[in-house]
């Protein structure tokens, strides 16, 4: 899953920080953070493992695999944020806006724990309100292009966004089959983490 889904699948402020940190730190450094942030890192990994093994995600990858092969999962992750952002059974538009603002506030309040490369990205994320704007086609197009730009072995002009648009109904079905399972799994992991405290 991508940034919005990870931030939504949290249960404390510390977990928000940990969820975002996970992709920016080395494994050996995870124990240098407070327990609540460590829990967010653990939750992030549990979400990724569950997502990678879910049948609906395997189906969704087929949309992008002919274009980007092994990178298909990264584009599915970005696509799922579009459907999370538009899922009004989870939050209203007003609540999604409040969620985005809360996440930026939590991250800025905990900047002492954030690596420099993440701080730079956070400035852009907040300025353009990525989390809220994932609901828009242009927001997802921007994110898809961002993945293409960072990928070492992919041409920057591959029509991944067009594949997203052309297969939106199918990807929506994959999301519908997947996200309730992920939400239940994240809640279960959080329960286990609370029992450890």
List the helices and strands and how they pair.
Blueprint: H1 3-8, H2 13-21, H3 35-53, H4 55-68, H5 72-85, H6 93-109, H7 116-127, H8 130-133, H9 137-150, H10 160-166, H11 168-196
Helix pairs in contact: 2-3, 3-11, 4-5, 4-11, 5-9, 5-11
Describe the model.
Helix 3 packs antiparallel against helix 11. Helix content is 74%, strand content 0%. It is globular and about 45 Å long. The protein is mainly alpha-helical.
Order of helices and strands: HHHHHHHHHHH
The CA-CA distance between the termini, in Å, is: 26 Å
- The amount of helix comes to over 70%
The pLDDT mean sits at 93
Total E-strand runs: 0
Radius of gyration: 16 Å
Query: How much β-strand is present in the residues?
Result: under 5%
Approximate shape: globular
Give the number of helices: 11
Stretches with pLDDT under 50, minimum 5 residues: none
Profile the largest sheet.
none
Instruction: Decide which structural class fits the backbone.
Output: mainly alpha
């Amino acid at each position: 899953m991508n940034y919005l889904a990870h931030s939504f699948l949290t249960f404390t402020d510390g977990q928000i920080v940990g969820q975002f940190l996970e992709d920016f730190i080395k494994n050996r450094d995870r124990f240098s953070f407070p327990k609540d942030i460590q829990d967010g890192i653990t939750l992030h990994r549990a979400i990724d493992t569950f997502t990678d093994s879910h049948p609906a995600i395997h189906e969704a990858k087929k949309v992008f695999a002919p274009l980007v092969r092994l990178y298909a999962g990264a584009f599915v992750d970005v696509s799922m944020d579009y459907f999370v952002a538009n899922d009004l059974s989870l939050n209203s538009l007003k609540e999604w806006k409040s969620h985005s603002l809360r996440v930026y506030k939590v991250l800025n309040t905990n900047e002492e724990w954030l690596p420099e490369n993440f701080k730079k990205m956070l400035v852009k994320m907040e300025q353009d309100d990525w989390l809220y704007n994932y609901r828009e086609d242009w927001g997802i197009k921007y994110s898809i292009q961002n993945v293409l730009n960072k990928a070492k072995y992919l041409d920057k002009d591959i029509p991944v966004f067009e594949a997203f648009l052309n297969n939106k109904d199918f990807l929506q079905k994959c999301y519908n089959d997947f996200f309730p399972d992920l939400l239940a799994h994240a809640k279960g992991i959080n329960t286990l983490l609370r029992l450890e405290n």
